[in-house]
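tmp note - Phosphate-selective porin O/P
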Amino acid sequence: MTDSTRMRALALGAALLAPGLAPGLAQAANWLLLQGSEPEQGTRALRPWGFAQLAYQRGEDTPIPVGGWTGQGMAANRLGPDKRAAERWQLHRLRLGVRGRVPGGAPLDYLVAVEAGDNGATREGDELQLIDASLSYRIDPALRLRLGQFKPPGSEEALRPAPRQPYFAVSTAVDQLLNETFLDHDGSDPLDANTPRGPRSLYHDIGAQLFGVLPGGGPWAHSYALMLGNGNGVARLDDDSHKDLYLYWSSEHVEGGRGAARQGTKLFGWWQQGRRELDGADPGSHLRTRAGAGVIHQAARWRLSGEYLVGRGMILAGSDGGAVPGSWNNAATRIAGRNLLPEGEAEGWYLEGGWRLAPRTWLDLRYDRYDRGTESAADHRRFTTWTLGLRYRIDRHWQVMANYQWREAEAPGLDARADANRLLAALDDRLALQLQFVY
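out:
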């Protein structure tokens, strides 16, 4: 099976799991509907909403042990977005928005939100970033049209709203493959840090989406989405003639609950493809493809979910020597730049679950693995992470969260004594604490 065939098969896999093959399943949240439209009954014209997340993170700040940047700070052990420290308090996110139905009687819904804070969208906390700005028109329950800037259909972790995330950070594969960093070059210029042209995508795009829930499924609900987007992230116009295509399907069996608290199992698959333009040593248009499939089961007192993702083209490949991008090496002959594998391949997966210890307390555990540069032994890097989490909901507005990550990395195609493996062995574990307010 070719790579392109495998990706299409993976994206359609969940759709082929007919109800008769999976009896007794139940439904998880439908993020397409929850974020893309308002309820048909009782919708207000203006509904303010938002959240704030205050975070503390800490690692050991182990320095680079080998190579031209020996003794300097290791980028993977520093905290984003600026990579200046391994320990800090930060206002991670402050998002303010309004949503509702446009007055006048037409089934036209809107969503607008801006974000501040210290994260990949706001770039060191000194900007106010437009995150969501969309209009959705309900033709009927099976066909809705959404226009503007919003999250395209894709991974469950990427689609889930930030306040609903059970962990402080998403899995490595989802972050690296879907939270896109926009670069102009592949990083081969020794005197160029290859600075991103704007914020990361934050799993957003600008475009048009058709989506809905198909009728006549009985206890089953079959959802779909088809989107054309610019493929250029948030708050930026298209900079080339190419469009990204997004496809999504999920099959659910309804058991109980409603909205974001619905209980049950969802089978889903998705596929994305577009082109990116590069200058420099590897100029031209490069195909970027992402696909995945997974399942999530949500019960009253426990949940279990997993997802498998693959990517081809435009694979992020770390920084030179593992150093903070923009840092000169010790000999002052080279600048650490961000690297990219324009024709590279990657895959990853996660398996996670949670147990409700008490009415307001959840214990969470996730294992995730990410393999990048799998097309060659020299480029192959493997990252594995165990995340243990505890969440306590103080009331309907306030929640506290504690996460601890055990992180490991290796270059499996190279000798254990190779510089790459000595560098990756210095990857630190990390503690994260978060206080969240939602209204």
